[in-house]
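Regression test attached.
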Amino acid sequence: MVEATQSGPMLAADGKPLKRSLNRALRRQKLRALMLIAPLLIFVLITFIAPIADMLFRSVENDIVADTLPDTVEVLADWDHEASDMPPDALWEAFYVDMFFAEAEKLHTRLGSRLNYEMTGVSSLFRKTGRAVGRFDTDSYTDQFTALDASWEDPATWVTMMEDDAVLEALPHTADAWDRWTAYLDREGDDPAKEDIEDVFFTTLYTDLAAQPPVSGLPERLQQAAAAVPSFETVDLKAQFIDADKDWGNADVWRMIQTYSPRYTSGYFLNAVDMQLTPDGVEQRPENQQIYGILFKRTIFMSVTITLSCIMLGYPVAWILANLPMRTANLLMILVLLPFWTSLLVRTSAWKVLLQQQGVINDILVWLHLVDDGNRLIMMNNQFGTIVAMTHILLPFMILPLYSVMQTIPPTYLRAAKSLGATNWTAFWRVYFPQSVPGIGAGSILVFILAIGYYITPEIVGGTTGTFISNRIAYHISSSLNWGLAAALGTILLAVVLLLYWVYDRIVGIDNVKLG
Amino acid sequence: MKLTKTLLASTALALTAGGLSAQDMADSMTIVSWGGAYQNSQLKAYVEPYLANNAGVSATWDESSAEAVAKLRAMNEAGNITWDLVDVEAADAIRLCDEGLAMEIDVDEMLAKGDDGSSAEDDFGDSLVSDCFIPQIVFSTTVGYRTDMVPAGTEPPSDICALFDLETYPGRRSLNKRPLANVEWALLCDGVPKDEIYDVLATPEGQERALAKLDTIKDQTIWWTAGADTPQLLADGEVFMGSTYNGRLFSAIAEQDQPIGMLWDAEMLDFDGWIIPEGLPEDRLARVKDFLMFATDTQRLADQAAYISYGPARASSAPLVGKHAELGIDMAPHMPTDPANATNVFVTNYSFWADYRDDIDAKFQAWLAR
C-alpha cells in the first residue's frame, strides 16, 4: 500500500494528481488572458482578416459562369474540343434555357463583362443575345401545342402536371426548366399559377417528347401531344443563336467558355504574371500586352531605392536629434513630425509645384544661370519625381525608430573607444553603428512596406515610368471592375512582401529590429 | 356632407392616378456627383428649385462619382444601398447596367415630355445609350493651347492634327492616361478616314498603328488622370497643348482669363447623366422618380447651361439656352453641340468601347509603361 502511493503520481492537497491540477490552473489562466484580448482579437478578425481573406479569395473564385449557365456548362464538360469542331447539339437547347433565365434575372450582361476580360467582344455578344432570346422563333412550338389543346396555355395546367412524378420522370428537360422557373418566381415573390407559360417550356417539352416514345400512364393531354410531336414543325436553335450573333458559330467562343467554366480558375493569377489561360493550356501573353512583370520589378526597385534614400537622409538627422540637449532636440523633433500633420495630397502637390519644368527649382536654377531656359530639367512625371516625393513623405518613419534606438546608445561607449585610440571613423563604424543597426532595420521595414503599396503619390508625380503596381490594382478595382485580377495582383504583392520579410529575417534577424 | 365625400373620393382618385402621394415618398435624397463647378450647376439649376417646391425634403451630396462604379458594386454586395441617385458618364452607366447595379428606365413613363411636345424618347434621342441611363448633358473632350506660346509667324492651331505636329507647334502636350479619344485622334491624323476609324481600331494592326502614331509624341507628353490637370498645366506653361473637357477650357478662358485658346475640331462628344441604383426601397425610389421628372425637363436642362458650358442632352432645351449666370455672356456659342462648333465631331462609340476597353487599355498601359 505504502509503496504504491509513493510510486504513483504526485497528488495535490485535494487528492487529485498534481500534474492535472496544474494544467487546469494554467488553462484557466490562459483562458482569462484570452478573454482579455478577445475584444481586440474579434475586432481584428472581423474588420481586417476577414475582408482581406474575402478579397484574396476572389482571385480564384469563378462561380459566375457555372451559376449563370449551369446546363450549358454541363454539356460543355463532356465536349472534347479537339475531337470535334463544335460542341454537341444538345448545347443549344441547354444554352437557350440558361439564357432565358439569365436574361430574366439580368445576369447575362454581367457574365458578358466577366468573359470579356478573357475575350474581346463577348460583352456585346451577351448583351445582344439577351435582347434576341425573347424574340426567338420558338413561339411556333407554343402555337403548335396550343393548337392541339388550348389548355396548354393555362399556367394552372402546368402547375398540376408538374406535380406528377411520372411526368417529371418522362420529361427531364422540362422538369429541370420548370424547377428553375418556380425557384425564380419564388425569389421574385410571384406565383407560377399566374404567370404566362413562356416559349422556352414548350421548347423543352418538344425535345422531351421527341426524344423518346410516349410512356403510358401520363395525362391524356401529354399522350396526345406526344403522338403529334413527330409531325411538328421544328425550330433550329443553333440557327437562331447564330442569327442573333454570328459569333455563336465560332468554336473559339465556346472553347473560351469551356476553359472558364470551372468554379475555381487560375486565370486571374496567370493574367497577373503576364500569362494567359487558353483552351490549349497556359501561354505567355504577346509582348505588347505584358505589363505586370515590369510593374512588379519597378515597384520593388523603387521601394528599395526609396528605403535607401531614407536611410541616407534620416541617419544623420536622427544622430543629431539623439545627441542634442533635450530642449533643442524636442524643437527639431517637431519639425520632423510637422509633415505628419499635413495632408498627404497637399504635400504631394507641393512637390509638383517645386519639381515641374516651370516650377520653383527650375526657376532658381535658370536664375542662377546653372540651367539654360530652353533646357529646363525634367524632374517629375518620372521615377525621379516619385522617389523624391516619397522619400520626403516616408522620412519620418525612418527617423523615429532610428532616433529612439540611438537615444539608448550610451555616449560613453564612443568616448571609451576614442580614449583607447580609435579614430573618429573607427569609433563610429566599429562601436556606434552596429548598435544603431536595429533602428535601421525597423525603419527600413516600415518604409519599405509602406512604399511598396503606395498609390497616391506615384499617381500624381509618377507619370508613366514612375507608377507602381498599386496604381494598376486601383484601376482594376475602381474602373475596369476586374476585381479578380486586382485580387490576384494584391495576393502576389502580399506574397512578395512576406517573402522579402522572410529573407530579411534570415539575413538581419527579426530579433535585431527595435523600435526603441 | 355628400359634397365633401365626393370631393374626398375624387382627391383620393386623383392622388392614386398621379402616382404616389407625398406621404409615400422619402423626405431625403442622397445625390452623388462630381463636386466642383459641375455639381454647382446641378444644385443651382434643379436641386435648389426642387427643394424650394417641396418643403421638408432635403438633399445630401456625395462627391463620389469618380469611384461610383466600384462603390456601387460594394454597396450592392453588402446589400445596403445608401445612394439614391448617381451622376456618371455614359460609359460607366453602360457598365453599371450590365452589372445589374443600375435600374432600367422606362424613358417615356419616367421622364417629362419635351416643351415642344415631343416624347421624351425622341427628345433625348441618341443620348439614350443605355437602358439605365438618364442623360443630362453633352460634353466633349477637346484640345486647348497656350496662345502666347504659338511660334511667331505661325497660325494658331485649328486642326486636331496639330497635336501630333511637333515641327510646326513645338512644345509639350498633355493627354488622357486612358486610350479613349487619344487612339481615335491618332488614327485620324495617321490618315484613316473618320468613318473607318472604329473598324481599323477593332484590329490588332489598327491598335498598333494608333500607338505608333502616339509614339511620335510620347516623350513630349504628360499623361493626365483628372480633368483639372490640363488647364493647370496650360496655366503654368508646362505644356503647349493638351486635351481636356470643354467646360474646363471654357472656365480657364472665359472665367479665369488665361491666355488659352481652344479647338473644336474632332471633339469627342460624350454624355453624362443619372442612374438610379438597383434595389432602392419603394419610398426612396418614389422620391427619386419625382425629382427626376422635374430635374430633367426641358427648362431645367437649359437652365443648367447658365452655370457651365455643357450642352443639354434634350434637343428641345437647345433653343432655351441663355446667358452665363455671372458673366452675362451668351452660352449657346460655347456649347459643344452648337452647329458652329460641331462641324467635325466624334460621338463616342459606346458599344465599341464596352467590348474593347479592357483589351485596348491593357495594350495602352503596357505601351505607356515601356
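Expected vs. actual: identical. The CA atoms of residues 367 and 447 of chain A lie 36 Å apart.
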